[in-house]
Write a structure and sequence with these properties.
Layout (H helix, E strand, L loop, with lengths): L1 H51 L5 H12 L8 H14 L9 H6 L27 H9 L3 H10 L3 H14 L3 H9 L2 H4 L4 E2 L1 H4 L2 H10 L4 E8 L5 H10 L1 H8 L3 E12 L2 E11 L4 E7 L7 H16 L9 E6 L4 H9 L5 E10 L3 H4 L5 H11 L8
Parallel strand pairs: 2-7, 5-6, 6-7
Antiparallel strand pairs: 1-7, 3-4, 4-5
Helix pairs in contact: 1-3, 6-8, 12-13
């Protein structure tokens, strides 16, 4: 009886995975076909503008006529048509966008995976050199939604950086709003910028993954603290806003606990924050410091990583990684402190939103002052006519 139940559960799981694979294929094909259509529309308008000398005025006319003649079809506003032309102009050398979609996408292992495994596809791991191949470029472009393309076209001018953001969209699962926020925070400049000893303490593959995972600085703009704050206050605020904290850390982090207790030789030690990284398959210990980095912090973190490896790490897990988050750091001090340690450790800074000092607050107008001034301005004699 129990065996039949297990067989049935297996059948149900296989059916659900197959349905999700089918849905994924349909969505990928629909998105790729829409992008190919928009690219082709942009091409047609561009060449008519070039050959006939038509200016930008043709676009509002097209938008109006398409709205009247294809009333059931959305997406042909003036702004969207302008973006189609820009989309073609930016990627006109990638002619395969016009033919790419379904056949090429179905040849990718991506369509053979459950939706949850979308972020493991090879396309997100392409190197800069591999992205010089227009076929790889076309495949990457075809996997990105139109709304995200418009954001990238408007905000990122460097093509290689734009491809990097496309890879992150797929790997991290960024929404429109998250993408805008990450671009604003210049995450492409922060990723992998921390001081670390990963190259000396991890395998090549794991070191590369760690460098792609950690960043410097971390932007905690969802937290507001006074100029003077304690490490415990920072820790509590991060846990209080754990969803936003996890978003800033990046995909793959699972929260294990705060002030996590480890017993070593009959003595208790508490880790500020403990995470498990689902992709790197390792524990991550985070130590919070309210001031600048000091060399002794590295030795303490090395001890914590050793303890986690001995007490919590499963035999199939990768080595525990330590991350020391400080308000500031001297890069040379940090490099020296990590150089001869045998545990993988990184040192990053963080940035907060801080409350205004009281003396500055008193110099700013209150809401009541602003309202009074507005009322008086709008009730002067010259405004009574």
């Amino acid at each position: 009886m129990n065996n039949e139940i297990e067989i049935y559960k297996g059948l149900l799981t296989n059916i659900k995975n197959r349905v999700r694979q089918g849905q994924l294929k349909v969505n990928l094909a629909a998105n790729a076909e829409m992008l190919a259509t928009y690219w082709d529309i942009g091409r047609m308008i561009h060449f008519q503008q070039q050959q006939k000398g038509w200016g930008k005025g043709v676009i509002p006319k097209l938008a109006n006529d398409l709205k009247n003649e294809l009333a059931e079809v959305k997406g042909f506003s003036v702004r969207n048509i302008q973006m189609m032309v820009q989309f073609f102009n930016e990627y006109q050398m990638i002619t395969s966008i016009g033919q790419l979609p379904v056949a090429d996408l179905e040849s990718q292992s991506i369509t053979q995976l459950p939706v949850a495994h979308l972020d493991n596809t090879a396309i997100t791991q392409l190197t800069v050199a591999q992205l010089e191949d227009t076929k790889n470029q076309a495949q990457l472009i075809a996997l990105i939604g139109w709304t995200q393309h418009t954001i990238l076209l408007q905000k990122i001018k460097d093509l290689s950086i734009r491809y990097w953001y496309m890879q992150q969209i797929l790997e991290q699962g960024w929404s429109r709003d998250t993408l805008v926020a990450q671009i604003k925070s210049k995450i492409h400049e922060r990723q992998g910028a921390l001081v670390h000893n990963f190259d000396n303490t991890l395998t090549n593959a794991h070191s590369l993954w760690a460098k792609q995972t950690f960043k410097d600085p971390y932007i905690f703009d969802f937290i507001t603290l006074a100029t003077e704050f304690s490490e415990r206050e920072l820790e509590l605020e991060l846990v209080k806003h754990v969803e936003k904290f996890l978003l800033e850390l990046g995909a793959g982090f699972a929260f294990v606990g705060r002030q996590y207790k480890l017993e070593v030789s009959d003595k208790d030690f508490e880790l500020d924050l403990l995470f498990y990284h689902l992709k790197m398959r390792c524990f991550v210990v985070i130590d919070l410091k309210k001031g600048d980095f000091l060399p002794e912090y590295a030795g303490k973190m090395n001890f914590y990583c050793s303890a986690v490896d001995d007490i919590l790490k499963h035999e199939t897990d990768k080595p525990t990684i330590g991350l020391i988050l400080c308000k500031g750091k001297n890069k040379i001090f940090a490099e020296y402190a990590l150089r001869d340690l045998n545990k993988p450790i990184g040192v990053s800074e963080y940035e907060l939103t801080q409350l205004l000092p009281d003396n500055l607050k008193s110099s700013l107008p209150s809401i009541e002052d602003i309202e009074r001034e507005f009322f008086e301005t709008n009730n002067t004699p010259e405004n009574d006519n």
